[in-house]
Amino acid sequence: MKIGYCRVSTDDQNPDLQLTALKRSGCRKIFTDKATGAHVKRPELTKCLKALKAGDILMVWKLDRLGRSLRDLMPYWMI
Length: 79
Fold this sequence. Notes:
By secondary structure, this protein is of the alpha/beta class. 33% of the residues lie in helices and 22% in strands. It has helices spanning 16-24, 43-51, 70-77, and strands at 2-8, 29-34, 57-60.
């Protein structure tokens, strides 16, 4: 199953572009966070990662939605 994750940095930003792209790509579940800053907790990302099962595909609109640097992204390669 394809599972999507999207994130916007502020309440003023709209996730519609990300949501539309994830839906068009076939995501059945989509988790959305509104969070800014490098060390802000993202509860929907935590739920998203826990929902993944063997064979599932995690999809994001852009890699920067998962992390702000390569160091932030490294833990996701191990999933």
